[in-house]
Write a structure and sequence with these properties.
Layout (H helix, E strand, L loop, with lengths): L1 H15 L11 E4 L4 E4 H13 L2 H23 L5 H17 L1 H15 L2 H12 L1 H42 L5
Antiparallel strand pairs: 1-2
Helix pairs in contact: 1-3, 2-5, 2-6, 3-4
Length: 177
């Protein structure tokens, strides 16, 4: 199970990574997720957004959460896996993800370039350097945490209401629940 999960994750990362085509302009990058050809200037500008928003720091934190979760899934699906193997796999996965971090950052930059114009990217980079942009960066994790909590509660309330309606309907119709 973990083997398939890790392979699927690795395949998804590989498919998202940008590539330099051998016969293409060396000053352009081909973004694999949508075959967009991007100038080095646009990639550099998009990467500057990722730098100023601390995307690499967030990615490192994500890896610190992802790997233990994958190992926990492994232990659940394969309870006979030894501690030594689980620890070694954890170390290797973490090292491999960190080694590939730059490629994922390039893929993320490709996503920005595919959704924003060159001018938009330059303006975003400039905005994130302002005091308000820096405040937005600093508060984003807290806002994400709070909105995730709100969204979870909202979804649970909606699900509970839907379940109650369905159960009431089936009870009224004489169906067993």
């Amino acid at each position: 199970m973990l083997h398939r999960t890790v392979l699927a994750f690795a395949a998804a990362l590989f498919m998202a990574l940008p590539a330099h085509a051998e016969d293409a302009d060396p000053n352009k990058v081909i973004c694999k997720h949508n075959d967009t050809i991007v100038s080095d200037a646009d990639m550099k500008a998009a990467r500057s957004i990722l730098t100023v928003t601390k995307a690499a720091d967030n990615m490192t934190a994500m890896i610190g959460t992802l790997v233990p979760n994958l190992i926990a899934s492994l232990r659940k699906s394969q309870p006979n896996v030894s501690d030594d193997i689980a620890n070694e796999l954890s170390t290797e996965m973490q090292a491999e993800l960190i080694k590939r971090e730059d490629g994922l950052l390039n893929a993320m930059a490709c996503v920005y370039v595919s959704h924003y114009t060159s001018e938009d990217i330059r303006q975003l980079a400039a905005f994130y350097q302002t005091p308000l942009g820096q405040r937005m960066i600093a508060l984003s994790p807290l806002i994400m945490k709070d909105t995730t909590t709100l969204g979870r509660a909202w979804g649970q309330q909606a699900a509970e209401a839907a379940v109650q309606r369905v159960l009431a309907k089936h009870k009224k119709d004489g169906n067993k629940t």
